[in-house]
Amino acid sequence: MKAFTLHGHFYQPPRENPWLWEVERQESASPFHDWNERITHECYRRNIPNYPFISYNFGPTLLAWLAEKAPEVYEKVLQGDRDSRETRGYGNAIAQAYNHIILPLAKERDKRIQIEWGIRDFKMRFGRDPQGMWLPEMAVDMKTLEIMTQRGIKFTILAPHQIALWKPKAQGPWAPFPGKFYPLPLYQKLPGGKGIYIFVYNGKMGETVSFGEALESPQAFLKLVEAHLKGIKQGLLHFATDGETFGHHKKKGAESLNRVLARLKDGKVELTNYGAFLDHCPSVPQAQIRENTSWSCSHGIERWRSDCGCATGGDPGWNQKWRAPFRESMDWLKEKLDAIFEEEGGKLFKDPWEAFLDYSEVMVKGPGALPALLRRHQGKALTPKEAITAAKLLEMGRMGQYIFTSCGWFFADISGLESIQNMRFAARAIEIAQEVGGTYLEGGYLDRLYQAKSNVPEEKNGLEIYKRRVVPSRFSARDITAHYLISSFLEGDLGERVIFRYQFIPGKVTYLERETTCLCIGRVKAVHLVFQEEEAFLFALLKYHTRDLHCSLIPFKEGMEGMLETLKEAYERGITYLVRELDRGFGLSFYTLNSLITRV
Length: 600
Description:
Blueprint: E1 2-10, E2 16-17, E3 22-23, H1 35-44, E4 55-58, H2 60-69, H3 71-88, E5 95-96, H4 108-126, E6 133-134, H5 142-150, E7 155-158, E8 163-167, E9 175-176, E10 186-189, E11 195-200, H6 203-211, H7 218-229, E12 235-242, H8 253-265, E13 270-271, H9 274-279, E14 286-289, H10 323-345, H11 352-365, H12 370-377, H13 384-402, H14 407-410, H15 417-437, H16 442-449, H17 462-470, H18 477-491, E15 497-499, E16 502-514, E17 517-528, E18 534-545, E19 548-555, H19 561-573, H20 575-586
Parallel strand pairs: 1-4, 1-12, 1-13, 5-6, 7-11
Antiparallel strand pairs: 2-3, 8-9, 8-14, 10-11, 15-16, 16-17, 17-18, 18-19
């Protein structure tokens, strides 16, 4: 059988602000709101006709964003897999280790979490067990493959240079692998008698499509495919590349791919996927991988921990010496977070790490799935306060995984969006750690981050970047409540609403108007939808005129109702008296129109 497929690795890192859980506006993605939105327009939507005919994986964090922000595209991604199952018996989609960390650099427990989460996420979304799994950056080691096979994964995809040895003949000796594309899968034996199939993709095709002119026209792409098909008597011609190549990196890519697939369907070549091909495959050679290698670093996996020379972007003379202290800061933090998770979680869960694996269900289905998870895993009947702590521990653990998202090290400088995003996840984890365990971690983290020197003089180092670019991203329940109050007041409806993972439930609200001013006072309850943590606030909104608004709020305690009557009396006497009462009752801190969270 002579067959063809290509694999598209569709992926974006998690970009959400971890306090708001919304992607903030990214000016570099203009005219779109952010890079997820822009790439969806340029690539994911345009490839809808192609998903039934190519092999692909979508990163789970990207699928989560698509499910909420572009549901019609999300559904077509799932439909592409269903269509291929009907026509070929095997789905085109494969799983991905969850949030794209470099698995050989991870501890064994984190390898297992990433692989397990990737499998569970896939199963909940696609409705079946995955046969294959994409390794982030194709970074591979034996322990990772061993864990994958233990979880039922049958195959993965690697580059030619990642195979060290093979047995061309079943009974022959081991020999150096020639370092080029091979049309049949190879078989890597693993401890315990199991093994995994490895599809070695055509590196020359991948490079020509990704970095050459092959996608400038359907004719050029078809010519490339036909030229490589001539060299195969039987077997699978295939290559792998970033899915974003088709429409984002190469503007004509999605349309060129679609037209070439149509031509191939009408020809003598079978369009297939890896699972279907494997089902009809004869015996294959054994192989031994070259450990700690990847597809985008010629130095193995150094791109994610050292100044190896591999970088994207940047100016001449820049270095990546920042990578080592950046990873050290994250490694140090993760060790501290794990200790807190085990100590505090051990008081609440039968097995904290088993509960953490199940947290993937909440990440897919939403906060509504959390109460059942807590009931299954609680070591005792949890009080409401303990349930909040348990939920926070699980979210802290998720942030501890996200800090290692590979994009944070991939580019040229620590001041890039991706590195800053990893720092935001770290800051959120640090904040929760102090809430649940009373442990202050920020100082030790920043001491290490200070050693990561930026190539951009004004950025200085990781510590300064954290202070200027991460700390302003933090939002407390009070900040978000003020946003709700001001925005709702301006819209004329201070009713029940959900904003930024909070449900706001107002109590009795009183409006008073006098000449050109308006005073709005009352109580509001803010419920965090994940943690089910409730906070109540007493508030006062004073509008001087259209563009001048003063919002004060403090945590509500029983017996405070009298303050509202005092404010009413002061308002009737005059604005000066009211402002004095606001300062006396609420303190000198207040919010204005400029306090609205407008970056989302």
